[in-house]
Amino acid sequence: MSASSQPGVTPVVLLAAGGTGGHLFPAEALAGALSARGIVVDLATDERAARYAGHFPARQIHILPADTVRSRSPLALARTALSLGSGIARGVGLMRRLRPAVVVGFGGYPTVPPILAGVIGGRPTLIHEANAVLGRANALLAPRVTAIATGYPDILAARPALAAKARHTGNPVRPAVLAVTGVPFAPMAGETFHLLVFGGSQGASVMSAIVPPAVARLAPALRARLSIVQQCRQEDLARVETAYAELGVRAELAPFFADLPARMARADFVVARSGASTVAELCVIGRPSLLVPLPHALDQDQLANARALADAGGALLVPQSTFTPERLAAELERVAATPEPLLAMATAARRLGRPDAAERLADLVAELGGL
C-alpha cells in the first residue's frame, strides 16, 4: 500500500528541480496547484539551486548532490559520476523515509538523482520537458520514468515508445504571470512605444551591446516615442545608461526586475532570449517579440522554442549571428509603424498559451499517484 492510499497519511509529492529559473518556475507553479488541492509538496534540489529556493512553496527542501557533465575529460566525468552516484544513494534513503506518491522532475542534472532514486524505490515518476526539444537530463530519464509531460505538442513524435507515455500539458507559469493575463494589448500608432529588453535569469551582454546602437539608428520620430525597460548586467549598466541619455531616450535599467511579468504586460514589443519560461510567459500574456536564442547550446533548446513561436506567427526569430544594430533597427521601424503586425503577433502568441498548464500537470500527478 502506497503512502497516498494509507488511511490518515497525508500524501506527499516530491518535486525535483534545480539550476535556472526555467526549471524552478514551473515547479513552483505546480507546487502551488498541488498545495491548493491539499497535497503536501517537498522539493529536492542541489546546493546551488537551494540558495534561490528560499520562497519555494514546499514543506521541506532536501538537498541531494548532483553535477553537470562539463567536459569529456576522465577526471571531470569521474567527478560527475561520483556526485550523481552519491545523490542517487541519498535519494533512495529519502524515498524510504518520505514514500512520495509521485516524484516529479523538471529537467537539469539536479533532477537525475531524485528521479532515479524514485525509479529504484518503485515510486511513480514523471518528468516535465519545458523546451521544444528533449534536454540531456530528461533524455537520460525518459525511458525509465512512468510518464512524460511536455510543454510543446508532438516533441516525441519520432520516438513512439516515449510518445506513448507523453502528455502535452503546456508549461506552468507563475501566479504573477496569470495575474496579468487580462491586461489588454492596444498598441497605438504615434503613441509611446514601450520596449522591454531582457536576457534570461542571468542577463545577456549581447542586449547591452546591440540595443543602444540600434536605437541610435532609428528615425528621430520613433526614438522620441520610445520608452525602454532593459535588464542589464551590473557591469554594463553605466555604459548603457550613458548611451540612452546621450540619445535623449527614456530608459529604466536594472540587473533584475522582480515584477517582470507586469512589465511584459505593459510592453508593446519584447526583445529577449527564448528560454522555455520566457516563451511560455509571452504566450500566456500574449505579447509580440523578437527572440535571440542562446547560441552554442548543446541541445539548441532555445532555438527550438523560438522556432515554434516564430512558425506560429507569434515572434520574430533572429539568430545571434545576425542580431546586429542594423537588423534590430529595421525590425523596430517596421513593427512600430502601425499596430497591425504587433496585434497579429500578440494574437498568434496567445493562441499557443496554456494558462491552465499547472492545473493540467497537477491532474496528471494526481492520476499517477492515485490522489
How would you explain this protein's 3D organization?
This protein has 2 domains: 3-173 and 356-369, Rossmann fold; 178-352, 3-Layer(aba) Sandwich (Rossmann fold), CATH 3.40.50. 44% of the residues lie in helices and 15% in strands. The protein has helices at residues 21-36, 47-50, 74-98, 112-120, 136-141, 160-163, 175-178, 205-216, 220-225, 237-247, 260-266, 276-285, 301-311, 325-337, 339-352, 357-369, and strands spanning 12-16, 40-45, 61-63, 102-105, 125-129, 147-150, 166-168, 193-198, 226-231, 250-254, 269-272, 289-291, 315-317. The strands form 2 sheets. The chain has a 7-stranded parallel β-sheet with strand order 3-2-1-4-5-6-7, sandwiched between helices. Strands 10-9-8-11-12-13 form a 6-stranded parallel β-sheet, sandwiched between helices. Helix 1 (21-36) packs across helix 16. It is elongated, with a radius of gyration of 22 Å. The chain starts with 11 loop residues before the first strand and ends with a helix.
Strand-helix topology:
Elements: E1 12-16, H1 21-36, E2 40-45, H2 47-50, E3 61-63, H3 74-98, E4 102-105, H4 112-120, E5 125-129, H5 136-141, E6 147-150, H6 160-163, E7 166-168, H7 175-178, E8 193-198, H8 205-216, H9 220-225, E9 226-231, H10 237-247, E10 250-254, H11 260-266, E11 269-272, H12 276-285, E12 289-291, H13 301-311, E13 315-317, H14 325-337, H15 339-352, H16 357-369
Parallel strand pairs: 1-2, 1-4, 2-3, 4-5, 5-6, 6-7, 8-9, 8-11, 9-10, 11-12, 12-13
Helix pairs in contact: 1-16, 3-4, 8-10, 8-14, 12-15, 14-15
